[in-house]
Amino acid sequence: MHRFALSLVLAVLIGLGARSASATELDGYWMDSDGEVVLEVGNCGAAMCAKVVWLRLPYGPDRLPLKDFRNPEASLQNRQVCGLNVITGFTKQPDGTWGGGNVYVPDLGMSFSGYAEVLSPTQIKVRGYVFLPLFGATEVWSRVAAPAYHCERDGVPPAPERAGQ
């Protein structure tokens, strides 16, 4: 579960960018290096946002859609992770990286700082951290085609039946 949490922290950092009405190099779909999460990055007013649109494991142990049960706000603990907006407020920074906003990680119920650096049109290096960039982790993420299954569009399908039921 902690590997998923780290993947989600890093995944949500990939779309960091200043937005206008026009598209940026970060618009689109991005997958973490472990194939656990796909995010859709796009405009949210003057900044960018990113939401979870695909999870390799979209169910909790109860075989129901994965919920934001670790959220510190009790009123938000029942919302589904699929479709959740997890990045807000990121803009282009003077050094050419993207950052300055918040990244929410449902698996941890915490928000983080972070930044991203575009390596190529299909890869981005992302770093998530607490307090200082020194205290964090870095991964390289890949651009992907829109997933065939999109949880915001399609909803989370029922969990498959367990063998013997």
TrEMBL record:
Keywords: Signal. Pfam families: DUF2147. Residues 28-143 form the DUF2147 domain. Residues 1-23 form the signal peptide. The keyword Signal applies. It comes from the Bacteria. PANTHER family: BLL6627 PROTEIN, BLR1215 PROTEIN. This is DUF2147 domain-containing protein.
